[in-house]
Amino acid sequence: MFKAVWAYRGFIKGSVSREFQAKYRNSLLGAAWPVLQPLAMIVIYTVIFSQVMRARLPDATGTFSYSIYLCAGLLHWGLFSEITSRAQNTFIENANLLKKLNFPRLCLPIVVTIGSLVNFAIIFSLFTAFLLITSNFPGIPILGLIPILLVLVTFSIGLGMTLGVLNVFFRDVGQLFGIVLNFWFWATPIVYPISILPNIAQRLMRLNPMANLLEACQTILVQGKWPAWQNLVLPGVLAVAFCLLGFWLFRKHASEMVDEL
Fold first, then answer.
1. Following CA atoms 162, 165, 167, 169 in sequence, which dihedral angle do they give, to the nearest 10 degrees?
2. Which domain range does residue 32 map to?
3. Which pTM value belongs to this model?
4. What is the mean pLDDT of residues 115-143?
5. Cα(36)–Cα(1) distance, integer angstroms
């Protein structure tokens, strides 16, 4: 199957390009919207939590410490949220394509992942420029984001593909996950540091794979330190597990999905 996907790499590249162009074709600001939307969210959260509520981070006294902490969490959460949300609907949204054309169905989650990574790369490039301009660039530890992103993307597409297959047969799955995602956001230390929670809550937070992944990103970008790699074991195991589960469900029900759509 992977050889077939590679043979359709031109289809994948064209789909990503067409999707990006179609999304902003009739927009005055065009490709600026992927930047403006998360930027607006970051500004809102920064004003509310940093200024109004006077939120402070332990061991971080810099002027932009909280803003960087917030960006580190929101940008990587946004990547996770975009991949999973789009992947869970990709088979339903492309029902006509699946019925009319013969191509490896696995191309669709790959298109979703690449498209989301392109948006993330644009936003993160601007964030990196901000770090350089404000003299807050973390230095060599920023390379630690590479394995973290690998785990995060693997976990996201594994979960998204699992939900995508289930959503074809049980449409409530998509609606339910939207609710779960909202609760999951606030159950993850993105706008608040994990250190403000009671000890028992901090221990329970370790069972949240996104909490571990985002804390690693925040450690690198805010403190300029290497993360605690042992905390990435659980997310790594879950990433592999969901990918295997999603691929197994996809292989098992690929033919049935076309009939259900």
1. -140
2. 2-260
3. 0.87
4. 89
5. 38
Are the CB atoms for 105 and 254 separated by under 8 Å?
A: yes
- What tokens were used for 151? 């785990």
**Burial classification of residue 126, based on how many CB atoms lie within 10 Å of its CB (0-12 exposed, 13-18 middle, 19 or more buried):** middle
- Residue given tokens 């006294």 in the structure block: 61
Alpha-carbon Rg for the chain, nearest whole angstrom, is 19
| Residues 41, 229: Cα–Cα separation, whole Å | 29
Comparing CA positions, the residue from 59, 249, 77, 101 lying closest to residue 155 is 77
Contact 57, 66 (CB under 8 A): yes
Do 41 and 12 contact (CB within 8 A), yes or no? no
How far is 39 from 199, CA to CA, in rounded Å?
33
- Kindly give, in sequence order, each residue whose CB lies less than 8 Å from that of residue 27, ignoring residues fewer than 6 positions away: 33
CA distance 259 to 191: 43
Two tokens at 140? Answer: 């060599």
The model's pLDDT over 224-251, given as tens digits with 9 standing for 90+, comes to 999 999 999 999 999 999 999 988 988 8
How many domains in the chain?
1
Farthest CA pair distance, the chain: 58
Q: Which pLDDT band holds residue 209 (cuts at 50, 70, 90)? A: very high
Nearest to 80 by CA among 239, 233, 231, 227: 239
